[in-house]
């Protein structure tokens, strides 16, 4: 309410905007005469549908579905990979058995192990 009082004090009763005499009396009729007739342009308005937009929409939906299927398939096969099985088995082995398995995997025999120990 203070803002309105401030504005009235600043303007001191002056009206900054003026409308010509009788402007609003025939405004509705002038607007109606400027509108096009319904018979000229058809009874119902038509909306132009661009085929390019719908085709792009369907292509993007298909691409998104394909991407989801590829990711889901990759995750499914990743869970059954042999690396996952080896990680579980390696944590369950005891110390001596793990060393034996690692030596067999690296194809190191006792002679090679003795040679490495002598160097260090």
TrEMBL record:
Record field: transmembrane: 57-77
UniProt KW keywords: Membrane, Transmembrane, Transmembrane helix
UniProt-recorded name of the protein: DUF3379 domain-containing protein
Taxonomic source organism: Xylanibacter brevis
């Amino acid at each position: 309410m203070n803002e309105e009082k401030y504005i009235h004090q600043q303007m001191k009763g002056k009206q900054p905007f003026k409308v010509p005499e009788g402007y609003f009396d025939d405004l509705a009729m002038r607007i109606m005469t400027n509108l096009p007739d319904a018979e000229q342009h058809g009874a119902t308005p038509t909306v132009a549908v661009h085929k390019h937009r719908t085709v792009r929409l369907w292509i993007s939906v298909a691409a998104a579905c394909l991407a989801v299927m590829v990711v889901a398939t990759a995750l499914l096969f990743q869970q059954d990979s042999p690396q996952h099985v080896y990680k579980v088995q390696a944590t369950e082995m005891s110390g001596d058995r793990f060393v034996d398995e690692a030596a067999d995997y690296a194809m190191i025999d006792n002679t090679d192990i003795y040679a490495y120990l002598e160097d260090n």
